[in-house]
Amino acid sequence: MRDHSNHRQVNKQEAVRIITENCRFTPESESVPIQEAIGRILAQDVCANWDNPNTLTCRMDSVAVHWADFEHGMPDTSDWVRGKQWEFANTGVAMPQGFDTAIVVEHVVFSENDTKISFDALPSGKYAGTSAAGSKMKKGDLLVEKGTKITPLIAAHIVSGNHTHVQVVKKPKVLFMPTGNELVPVGGEIPKGKNIESNSYMIAAKIEQWGGEPMVADIVPDTKEALKKALHDAAARADIIVLNAGSSKGNDDWGIEMLEEEGTIFYHQTNHGPGHHSSFGILDETPVVGISGPPAGAAFTTDYYLYPAMMVYFGKNPMLSKIKVRLGQELGGMKKHQKPAGDSAKAKGEDRPMEGGEFYSVKQLILRQGEDGVIEAYPTKTMRPGAVEAEGADAYYLMPTWEGQRPPQKGDMIEVELRP
């Protein structure tokens, strides 16, 4: 049996710190049509290409007049002629030639055939009711800063600056690598003892959702040679590698050894479950995020550890948002993790002993607003990440499970992290 006594275990906070400090990216940019840029990150500032408006413009549905006629009070309009003393002016349209002031139509009284006109309110001054040329933006004005995520509203703002294309950060190529002799692709007959590889579908969708370009490698068998070749090939093609499975302590788990031999590994495992065997390393200058094989762990450990790496690539905040909530129902199911102390300890053979003193159980929670306005948290049916009924959950909670810890009670305020 291989020696795993030197495996470094860290907590989630330390793991994220290590990831963010050791991911080094130099993203390139590309020009894309604005209609294809929604959700992308701007690679450079966007400035206006014109003055908007480019002439004196009416701000509302109005009647255009000459300020000189109102400068000394309400004029006699009995002989006014449309096109000479007044003219219709509509919202966002250039003021009629020669007119400089607008009075909103609600303060205008028209005769039946619109040949006579009078007013029940005076304009406040010259150019009232109008927008000056360049009042919304002037050529060269900064419209949107580099690093901004393009939303539909921001896209419209960019277009209003007379842009059809924008420079965006190229999507990071994130390669998902499933490993394991027991895995087979979906479809067809499943041999005895084999299992369908399904994590790639879930993780690829997350990668795309977070702005990356997902790449899925073929299933890698559990041999050192196959894994070594696959990892180096992946590092040559990808910005980030997600190594799935092969990170535990089975006799066919070679992921950790390969990273130690061929690159650098910063931690081997984390002090929470599911997802205990999460790891992080660098191979050929490419970050390798190791996640556990079972879907229950893989589902949220990518949120915990792949999401921060991708946000570092984009120059965005890598931390999941945290909020305080009130526990609306006891969580229950608090399984104690404690290290057997000598021969007298009554440990079950199927229970993994705790390593490093502290261990957390990851609970997945649904958030609702209480009657008093306070946000409350309720457990999903199973409380385990990865289950179908848990997909509607909003937040994660790291519940202490080591000896001497008091489980949170209904009504307690707890800190949770929002799913990305």
Automatic annotation (TrEMBL):
Pathway named in the protein's UniProt entry: Cofactor biosynthesis; molybdopterin biosynthesis
Required co-factors: Mg(2+)
Record region (Disordered): 333-354
Database matches in InterPro entries: MoaB/Mog-like_dom_sf, MoaB/Mog_dom, MoeA-like, MoeA_C_domain_IV_sf, MoeA_linker/N, MoeA_linker/N_sf
A GO term for molecular function: metal ion binding
Superkingdom per UniProt: Bacteria
Transferase is among the record's keywords: yes
Enzyme Commission number(s) from the entry: 2.10.1.1
Biased composition (Basic and acidic residues): 345-354
SMART domains on file: MoCF_biosynth
This protein's GO CC annotations: cytosol
Positions of the MoaB/Mog domain: 175-312
Reaction catalyzed: adenylyl-molybdopterin + molybdate = Mo-molybdopterin + AMP + H(+)
Keywords annotated in UniProt: Magnesium, Metal-binding, Molybdenum, Molybdenum cofactor biosynthesis, Transferase
Uppermost EC category: transferase
PANTHER family: MOLYBDOPTERIN BIOSYNTHESIS PROTEIN (PTHR10192), MOLYBDOPTERIN MOLYBDENUMTRANSFERASE (PTHR10192:SF16)
Role noted for this protein: Catalyzes the insertion of molybdate into adenylated molybdopterin with the concomitant release of AMP.
Family membership: Belongs to the MoeA family.
Record-given protein name: Molybdopterin molybdenumtransferase
